[in-house]
Amino acid sequence: MPSKWIRKCLERVENYRHQCAMSPLRPDRRALLAGLLAAPFAVAQDSAKQATATTEHGGTAATVDGVSGATVRQWLQQPIEPVKGTLSKGKIGNLEISRLIFGSNLIGGYAHSRDLIYVPELFKAYNTEAKVFETLYRAEQAGINTMITPSFELPLIRKYHETTGGKIQTMVQVFERNGDFIPDIDQAMENGANTIYLHGGTVDQFVQAGKIDALHNAIRHIQENQYSAGIGGHSIKTPMICEERGIGADYYVKTCHHDRYWSAHPRENRVEFSIVGPNQPDHNAYHDNIFDLFPEETVAFMGTVKKPWVGFKVLAGGAIHPKDGFEYAFRSGTDFICVGIFDFQIVEDVNIALDVLGELKERTRPWYG
């Protein structure tokens, strides 16, 4: 007898095939395959929406769907390959956060993959709800205690907590709705966020458009509700202008990587804020291939900012080896790094982080977290 999760997957596949057959615009083979591959993650998202049920005492109880009790017991009883030590931690507000933060891009399927258009759906197909839960559990076992996740994934993370007993903290990125971040901020707080920051790509667009007051209002709203508030960004202009205008963020989530890899386009062709624009067909222009356009400027300016800095995209979307990327980021002054990690990469990445932090030299920026 197939499990409820498998049955739901099969139902979604059959429904999708039926929609394709009835549509006057028949999808090509690639589009059909993409729709079918998306089924497992879509089921995971559906089940996350039903992750809790009200108890007689007014609390919530897990409704396990897709991850059986036997599966959870198997994770609990199966030790991971040993790591070399314990990840050091820093603080943002009252939160103690591991220097290596788990990034959710890979489990959500919205990873950066240049022009490899099949990759997002491949990641979704691999990261079923059960695999996501196993990955987070193993990350916690290895010493990672915090993840960055978008607000809309919080129901799934809450279900992970209730199903496995995991305690991973959430640094939640929130988005604007009709020019206002506050509705998503409120939703993130309702769904159990531990700290909240404004999504980097969105903030870049607001800074580019001069909508600084909206950022200030959002940061103040987060802080008034007793949360630490962060600003995300890819462009170095974002933290520069936010600091100049006194936005008052408690920390920054800013890209940090070098450009010594093959797919980085020539520096003379890089245009500020192009990361939030459309991909270009020109091989010598931006095409989802670089996330810190001017690395030296980033390092120089962030060296003057006396607030915690969470570096992200430190591997440039998989173009830089972790040993190289982690070392560059920590040496350049990041207090924490956020990295997308598959389940089979966790131990290796934690051990690399331990080695890098243990042997770190030539760091001039003080630790602010």
What portion of the residues fall into strands of 2 or more residues? 5-15%
Number of helices: 15
Mean pLDDT: 85
What are the secondary-structure elements, in order, as H or E?
HHHEEHEEEHHHEHEHEHHEHEHEHEH
Distance between the termini: 51 Å
Instruction: Identify the CATH architecture of the largest domain.
Output: Alpha-Beta Barrel
The gross shape turns out to be globular
Spans of at least 5 consecutive residues whose pLDDT stays below 50 are: 1-7, 12-65
Work out the number of β strands.
Answer: 12
* Oligomeric state of this protein: single chain
* Largest sheet geometry: 8 strands, parallel, barrel
Using only C-alpha atoms, the radius of gyration works out to 21 Å
The CATH H-level homologous superfamily of the largest domain: Aldolase class I
Indicate the structural class: alpha/beta
Total domain count: 2
| Overall CATH class of the largest domain | Alpha Beta
Helix content: 40-55%
Describe the protein's topology:
Layout: H1 4-22, H2 29-37, H3 39-49, E1 52-54, E2 60-62, H4 69-77, E3 89-92, E4 95-98, E5 100-103, H5 105-108, H6 119-126, H7 129-141, E6 146-150, H8 154-164, E7 169-174, H9 182-190, E8 195-198, H10 200-209, H11 212-224, E9 229-233, H12 237-244, E10 251-255, H13 295-302, E11 309-312, H14 322-332, E12 336-340, H15 346-358
Parallel strand pairs: 5-6, 5-12, 6-7, 7-8, 8-9, 9-10, 10-11, 11-12
Antiparallel strand pairs: 1-2, 3-4
Helix pairs in contact: 1-3, 3-8, 7-8, 10-12, 14-15
